[in-house]
UniProtKB/TrEMBL annotation:
GO cellular component, one term: cytoplasm
Gene Ontology MF term list: oxidoreductase activity
Family: Belongs to the DadA oxidoreductase family.
Domain FAD dependent oxidoreductase, residue spans: 6-372
Cofactor section: FAD
Coiled coil location: none
Domain of life, per lineage: Bacteria
Protein name (Swiss-Prot/TrEMBL): FAD dependent oxidoreductase TIGR03364
Swiss-Prot/TrEMBL keywords: Flavoprotein, Oxidoreductase
Classification via Pfam families: DAO (PF01266)
Length: 377
């Protein structure tokens, strides 16, 4: 039986989602990864599949399709996936006004969201700090995976497929139509996908510099509670997240909230901080994050930024002050600077770029991969 051949450069979530779907279509797939294991943004995130953050239209539809594909593949790959939903908290009146407005908008769009009063939150989520809490919004569409375990699980799943072959420690030197050159080998295929994430400039620097792209560096932390195995039950975020995610711009009160938070929390706005916390299936908490934009990022993490993140966390969750920091890190991803939310382009015959997903890689990768494959197969 003839199997068409595909090469994927990059073994992050973008590349792995392509590999999963190509294998299902009967492709013989070679995955070339420059490192011994994925070490980029795909393992340095919250592990959130987050439709609530995507604006109505293509982005939201792709996020919901990704969610369907994640649930299916996680089951088959034995990856723990929690269908948790999400909880947005409002501690200031402008935040609460926006949530009340946007819930109506989201419900008209068919999203599964609802307003929660303070007493409802206290009864259902006792770890939430209710002092000064105005209320919240719960969405039922979000899911959580441990990003490190999920990437490992997808690799293990694909390793069991006879048509999929990983090539670790295999940096790509050059690409031309139908061919990929490494230091020691030549790979040939019918179709080539470049899913290299923030390292895309190493292959095609002039192409990358011509695109509306910018790098984003984020800082995150992992914490654990050594005194209790209590479950938070749902990913939690606060008012700053209402400014970060484009879906909330549908509310006419969005600009009022932006002006309010610029006055109330200028240091958070300066560092692009919005604070979220997600409890992994294993029990630890991932907390973040900040956003620094530029074309050249230093390798250092700023302790003052981490302190700001933690102080906001303490205002949201009662037991958080006793949690112990176990790890800190930063990640870097490529983000579009125009109105698009991804970069898919055929840059030469049969060679496609799949990049620029910003901070929504876990949320969008499977849906976008399916769209790209359907457009060429």
């Amino acid at each position: 039986m003839h199997h068409p051949k595909a090469i994927i450069v990059g073994a992050g979530i973008a590349g792995l989602s392509l590999a999963c779907l190509l294998e299902q279509k009967g492709f013989n797939v070679d995955i070339l990864e420059k490192d011994a294991y994925p070490t980029g943004a795909s393992i340095r995130n919250f592990g959130m599949i987050w439709p609530i953050g995507q604006p109505e239209g293509e982005a939201y539809n792709l996020a919901m399709r990704s969610r369907e594909l994640w649930i299916d593949i996680a089951y088959r790959a034995h990856i723990p996936l929690l269908q948790t939903g999400s909880l947005h908290l409002a501690y200031h009146l402008p935040e609460w006004e926006l949530l009340q407005e946007v819930v109506g908008i989201f419900q008209e769009q068919g999203r599964q969201v609802e307003l929660l009063q303070t007493q409802d939150i206290l009864q259902t989520y006792p770890m939430v700090q209710t002092e000064h809490l105005c209320g919240g919004m719960r969405s039922h569409e979000e899911c959580i995976v441990n990003p490190r375990e999920a990437i490992t699980g997808l690799i293990d799943y694909l390793n069991e497929k006879p048509l999929v072959h990983f090539h670790w420690n295999t940096p790509v030197c050059w690409v031309e139509p139908g061919k990929v050159y490494t230091r020691n080998s030549l790979f040939a295929a019918d179709v080539i996908f470049l899913a290299t994430g923030a390292d895309m400039h190493q292959l095609f620097p002039q192409l990358v510099s011509s695109q509306p792209l910018i790098k984003c560096k984020l800082q995150m932390l992992s914490l654990k509670d050594g005194l209790s195995d209590e479950r938070l039950g749902i990913p939690v975020c606060g008012g700053l997240s209402l400014l970060h995610y484009r879906s909330f711009q549908a509310a006419s009160s969005w600009n009022r909230l932006k002006n309010f938070l610029e006055q109330k929390k200028p240091e958070y706005m300066q560092h692009g901080i919005h604070v979220m916390v997600a409890q992994m299936p294993s029990g630890n908490y991932i907390v973040g994050d900040s956003h620094e934009y530029g074309n050249h990022m230093d390798p250092f993490e700023r302790m003052d930024v981490n302190i700001l993140i933690l102080e906001e966390l303490y205002r949201m969750l009662l037991p958080a002050r006793r949690w112990q920091i176990t790890e800190t890190w930063h990640g870097i991803y490529l983000k579009m600077t125009n109105d698009s939310f991804y970069w898919q382009e055929e840059i030469m015959p049969g060679t496609f770029v799949y990049n620029g997903l910003g901070g929504a890689g876990m949320t969008l990768s499977f849906g976008l991969a399916e769209k790209l494959i359907q457009s060429i197969c």
